[in-house]
Automatic annotation (TrEMBL):
It comes from Dactylonectria macrodidyma. Residues 9-55, 87-133, 165-211 form the LysM domain. InterPro entries: LysM, LysM1-like, LysM_dom_sf. Keywords: Chitin-binding, Signal, Virulence. Belongs to the secreted LysM effector family. It comes from the Eukaryota. This is Carbohydrate-binding module family 50 protein.
Length: 243
């Protein structure tokens, strides 16, 4: 009872909803939320599950959060995010903490520290909210598999540690086109990149995959990078050798 009459946006309260989570999600000051929804009380003591509350009125716009570092924080975010964040990621239905870890080369412990509302096992990662993936002064550490070749980012976790050459997957890339371009079999492509799946169902755009494996192709055995860099020439060379 008593909800503001000019409400134009509503939120269905769940058993896990709190006034603080609504405040964070909608960048909505608690004082304003209580004013629009007087029935919840002034201390959120009467927020009832399975009821709708008002989270927006005609003419009202949330104020972007400025943490004081000159970088506006988008909304919605989960409460407790680090104040020095300078890069944000919008969580989608397919997003996982592991995919964020892989994409940004961001250790999970660090990610959880910057976004404590996630929990320590990613149990509270909320779709359609922003999370922090970088803070001022922080730089991801390039992966060095120990073979003298730096691994670019992002990659899907589980890639072989002995990769010599990488390919950035585009929206038009398929496993078949990658196989043809680098003259490799799908068995090898999958062996080097198990996260793509045995039927290539999880080949992610804007991620790097391994397409040349040390001690597998003749060019890599010889330590000659041109065979990995120019697969068409490699095919011709191997054809001549075979003949």
């Amino acid at each position: 009872d008593g909800m503001v009459k000019t409400c134009n946006k509503f939120h269905l309260v769940k058993t896990t909803t709190t006034c603080a989570s609504i405040e964070s999600y909608y960048t909505l000051p608690l004082a304003t939320f209580y004013k629009w929804n007087p029935a919840v009380g002034t201390n959120c003591q009467s927020l009832l599950a399975s009821y709708y509350v008002c989270v927006g009125v005609i003419g009202w716009e949330p104020t972007p959060t400025d943490p004081g570092n000159g970088i506006a924080t988008p909304s919605p975010i989960q409460s407790g995010m680090v104040k020095t964040c300078n890069k944000f990621h919008l969580v989608k239905s397919t997003t996982t903490c592991a995919s964020i870890e892989s994409y940004y080369t961001l250790p999970l412990a660090t990610f959880y520290k910057w976004n404590p509302a996630m929990g320590t096992k990613c149990q509270a990662l909320q779709t359609n909210t922003y999370v922090c993936v970088s803070i001022i002064g922080w730089k991801p550490t390039p992966t060095d598999p120990g073979n003298g070749i730096s691994t670019p980012t992002p990659i899907q976790s589980g890639m072989t540690k002995s990769c010599k050459k990488f390919h950035l997957v585009k929206t038009t890339t398929t496993c078949a086109s990658t196989q043809e371009y680098y003259s490799i079999t799908f068995a090898n492509l999958y062996k080097w990149n198990p996260p793509i799946g045995s039927k290539c169902t999880t080949l992610w755009a804007q991620y790097y995959v391994c397409c040349c494996f040390i001690m597998r192709l003749w060019g890599c055995i010889l330590g000659s990078s041109w065979l990995c860099s120019f697969p068409s020439l490699a095919r011709l060379w191997l054809s001549n050798v075979a003949n």
